[in-house]
């Protein structure tokens, strides 16, 4: 029978929560790991593109349940609109054990040294809260290494000439490039660029007791049928459970973090699988629920000492919401280039991540994951019909002949791009929901134009007879699947919420460890950095645990 009191409650069983639960439980610290969803079951995910985690037209097998989890999108004119998880403005996230690591693309990037020192590298940016991280690449390097080997990453050390130094290579070799990867590699080299294999959190060969990738075409957005995609659900969480020190609570919706009169946290209030209200007491609480849901939880946890939300007396919780504006270019070719073997994306270029004239930061460019028929039908060259006979003919002719290069741009954090709590709308459990508001910084779109132009140059060099750019970074709040920044780490409590270990400035036994603590989002997919930060935070907690409580 599960207990009602633990040393630690970890809220969210995703990329960071699974790691923290494992590290704490292995160290002998009792853990309640809370997850709003259930275990992912492949047989419930029938490889239907319309219910994949990326399209979500009919449903999302990995959750969340739409009707139970609305949000509010605030338009620039102040109009408030209720949105559901199949709406891109929702900033959707999976709701299951493993969260997004069950269905993600699994690109495993280490951030570059400059990514942790943006303000020092480029100077202040008007209209932005751009700043340096309080933690450096060198401090996180051992944590990156641990993530690569414990979770499992395939790649080629040293292939990216721009990467920061590493002490150890990857545990698995990289994936083969595929036909489009070969063509783009040759074109990039002719332009003097430096293509390399994308590091991936998936098994290119059998590893850690699980098989190698079978190159299934339904990969990104789908659960792996042979368990070769590496997430917290099939690596660290099983280890945590076998220690006997970790209890996993599935289908459990955390509503509030409870505090003592002194301001310290003392546990959580949650709704169980039968929608019954329950209490768990704990010595510490670690919030790992995502940049939107973690901020929501703190803002909903009010008390006499924290009337505006837990650890929010300086009004920084929910601020600086960032994600990634994806940008790039497509091309049409005379020959088939897409083989539809998984994972699809295999080649990256880091030439444009930093030190581009007139650009602050930049982003990586990669060939695409497999664009399945429905998603393919949503992408057409400018002026091309989107219905009727011509639309169908294009679909048939170019499904394997339209390929592109795209990537995430380093966004500029903005104080008023934010998560707040809606004053009226409640979810199924009666909990106030997330409201998303604000706008991106104008530089985001300018930077996207730069990166898209570079992508089109490579696509043209590769031999495309028709090319066009897709340019992101336009207005509205950011976020989406790479959301970060809302519970920023920093040294100054007046301009941040937690320190470099994820410990709240105002509450010694409260920790946050997910994308929300990021100061900036980098020019890469963030998951490996989320994992590295989780190892960093959990190492600090374990080091300062005296056997019965956390030493503040």
What does this structure look like?
- This protein is α/β, with parallel strands linked by helices and 552 residues long.
- It has one domain (5-543): FAD/NAD(P)-binding domain (3-Layer(bba) Sandwich), CATH 3.50.50.60.
- The protein is 21% helix and 17% strand.
- It has helices at 15-26, 118-122, 137-152, 178-190, 236-242, 291-300, 373-377, 388-398, 442-461, 527-543; strands at residues 5-11, 31-34, 71-74, 80-83, 195-197, 246-249, 253-259, 265-271, 277-287, 325-332, 347-349, 365-367, 402-409, 418-426, 432-437, 466-470, 510-512.
- The strands form 3 sheets. Strands 1, 2, 6, 7, 8, 9 and 17 form a 7-stranded mixed β-sheet that branches. Strands 5-11-12-13-10-16 form a 6-stranded antiparallel β-sheet.
- Strand 7 (253-259) and strand 8 form a beta hairpin.
- Helix 1 runs parallel beside helix 5 (236-242) and helix 1 (15-26) packs parallel to helix 10 (527-543).
- The protein is globular and about 70 Å long.
- The two termini are 31 Å apart.
Order of helices and strands: EHEEEHHHEHEEEEHEEEHHEEEHEEH
- Major sheet characteristics: 7 strands, mixed
Overall pLDDT metric: 95
CATH fold-level label: FAD/NAD(P)-binding domain
Given the structure, what is the number of helices?
Answer: 10
SS-based class = alpha/beta
Give the key terms.
FAD/NAD(P)-binding domain; globular; 552 residues; 7-stranded mixed β-sheet; 21% helix
Précis, in short:
By secondary structure, the chain is α/β, with parallel strands linked by helices. It has helices at 15-26, 118-122, 137-152, 178-190, 236-242, 291-300, 373-377, 388-398, 442-461, 527-543; strands spanning 5-11, 31-34, 71-74, 80-83, 195-197, 246-249, 253-259, 265-271, 277-287, 325-332, 347-349, 365-367, 402-409, 418-426, 432-437, 466-470, 510-512. The mean pLDDT is 95.
């Amino acid at each position: 029978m599960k207990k009602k009191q633990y040393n630690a409650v970890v809220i969210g069983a995703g990329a960071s929560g699974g790691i923290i639960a494992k590290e704490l439980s292995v160290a002998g610290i009792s853990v309640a790991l809370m997850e709003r969803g259930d275990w992912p079951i492949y047989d419930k995910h029938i490889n239907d593109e319309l219910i994949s985690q990326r399209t979500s037209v009919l449903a999302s097998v990995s959750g969340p349940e739409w009707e139970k989890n609305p949000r509010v999108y605030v338009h620039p004119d102040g109009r408030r609109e209720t949105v559901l998880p199949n709406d891109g403005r929702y900033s959707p996230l999976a709701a299951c054990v493993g969260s997004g690591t069950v269905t993600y693309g699994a690109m495993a990037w280490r951030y570059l040294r400059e990514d942790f020192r943006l303000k020092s590298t480029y100077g202040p940016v008007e209209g932005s809260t751009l700043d340096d991280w309080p933690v450096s690449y060198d401090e996180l390097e051992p944590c990156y290494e641990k993530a690569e080997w414990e979770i499992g990453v395939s790649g080629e050390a040293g292939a990216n000439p721009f990467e920061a130094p590493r002490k150890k290579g990857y545990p698995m070799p990289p994936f083969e490039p595929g036909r489009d990867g070969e063509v783009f590699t040759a074109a990039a080299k002719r332009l003097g660029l430096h293509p390399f294999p994308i590091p991936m959190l998936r098994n290119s060969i059998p590893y850690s007791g699980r098989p190698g990738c079978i190159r299934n075409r339904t990969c990104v957005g789908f659960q792996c049928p042979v368990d070769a995609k590496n997430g917290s659900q099939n690596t660290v969480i099983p280890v945590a459970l076998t220690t006997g020190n970790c209890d996993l609570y599935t289908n459990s919706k955390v509503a509030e973090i409870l505090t003592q009169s002194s301001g310290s946290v003392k546990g959580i209030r949650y709704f169980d699988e039968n929608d019954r209200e329950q209490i768990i007491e704990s010595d510490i609480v670690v919030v790992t629920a995502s940049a939107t849901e973690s901020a929501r939880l703190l803002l909903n946890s009010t008390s006499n000492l924290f009337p505006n939300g837990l650890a929010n007396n300086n009004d920084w919780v929910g601020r600086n919401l960032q994600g990634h504006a994806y940008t790039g270019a497509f091309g049409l070719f005379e020959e088939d280039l897409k083989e539809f073997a998984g994972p699809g994306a295999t080649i990256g270029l880091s030439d444009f991540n930093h030190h581009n004239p007139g650009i602050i930061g930049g982003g990586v460019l990669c060939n695409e994951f497999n664009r399945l028929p429905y998603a393919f039908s949503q992408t057409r060259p400018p002026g091309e019909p989107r219905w009727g006979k011509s639309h169908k003919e294009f679909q048939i002719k170019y499904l394997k002949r339209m390929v592109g290069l795209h990537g995430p741009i380093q966004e500029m954090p903005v104080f008023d791009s934010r998560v707040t709590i809606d004053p009226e709308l409640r979810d199924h459990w009666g909990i106030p929901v997330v409201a998303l508001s604000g706008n991106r910084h104008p530089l985001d779109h300018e930077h996207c134009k730069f990166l898209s132009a570079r992508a089109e140059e490579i696509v043209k060099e590769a031999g495309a007879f028709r090319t066009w750019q897709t340019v992101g970074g336009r207005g509205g709040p950011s976020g989406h699947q790479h959301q970060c920044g809302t519970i920023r780490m920093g040294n100054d409590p007046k301009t941040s919420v937690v320190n470099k270990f994820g410990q709240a400035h105002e509450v010694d036994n409260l920790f946050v460890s997910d994308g929300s603590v990021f100061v900036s989002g980098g020019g890469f997919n963030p998951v490996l950095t989320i994992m590295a930060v989780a190892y960093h935070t959990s190492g600090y907690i374990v080091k300062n645990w005296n056997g019965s409580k956390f030493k503040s």
